[in-house]
Amino acid sequence: AHGRRFDLTRVVSLVGRTVRSLTSIENNGRGEVPVRWFPHPFYPQPEGNELIWLNVPLRWQDGAGYQRLDNGFIARADGPWTEGRYLALDHDAQAPLALVQRHPTLGLVSAATSYVPAFFPLWGNAITFSWEPFFERTVAPGQRVS
Q1: Is 133's pLDDT higher than 60?
Q2: This model's pTM is above 0.70
Q3: Of 72, 73, 92, 133, which is the most buried if we count CB atoms within 10 A?
Q4: Distance CA 51, CA 58 (A)
Q5: Residue 131 phi/psi, 5° resolution?
Q6: Three-state SS across the chain?
Q7: Per-residue confidence (pLDDT) for residue 1, from 0 to 100
Q8: Are 124 and 76 contacting, i.e. CB atoms less than 8 angstroms apart?
Q9: Distance (Å, rounded) from C-alpha 34 to C-alpha 50?
Q10: d(CA 6, CA 52)
């Protein structure tokens, strides 16, 4: 009805201890294709309250269960959680994200995006923690994005 036709490809690879995930969409149709997607990694909660450090300036309203520490990490503000905690971060990213996350077994896990997130929430509960950098684009006919 809208002339939309596209190819969606996701390639996940493991080299040593590095996981690489590449998602791309190619618009083969006549109409524009709106894309809104985000990686959704779930990690186990670390033993302490420190969760994640990001390379961009961040702002948020207090009261969501998170706090910023003097070392730049975002941490649980009120100890181990029993319920889910969601926080939409207001960021001033001008370049792709780089982040470091605490992990109970590995110590630290690092990650990077290849895009500037349009929207960036955090979510956690008693068991897991997740960061969700949204990728948003309108893909024109003949265009490929990843």
Answers
A1: yes
A2: yes
A3: 133
A4: 15
A5: -120, 145
A6: CCCCCEEEEEEEEEECCEEEEEEEEEECCCCCEEEEECCCCEEECCCCCEEEEECCCEECCCCCCEEECCCCCEEECCCCCCCCEEEEEEECCCCCCEEEEEECCCEEEEEECCCCCCEEEEEECCCEEEECCEEEEEECCCCEEC
A7: 52
A8: yes
A9: 36
A10: 35
103 vs 120: CA distance, rounded Å: 20
Quick one: tokens of 64?
Answer: 């969501």
Token pair belonging to 67: 């706090």
> Can you tell me the distance from the alpha carbon of 67 to that of 62, in angstroms, rounded to the nearest whole number?
7
Contact status, residue 128 vs residue 45, Cβ threshold 8 Å: yes
For 27, residues 6+ apart whose C-beta sits below 8 A from its C-beta are 4, 5, 6, 33, 139, 140, 141, 142, 143, 144
pLDDT at 105 over 70: yes
- Which tens digits make up the pLDDT trace of 66-82? 999 999 999 998 777 88
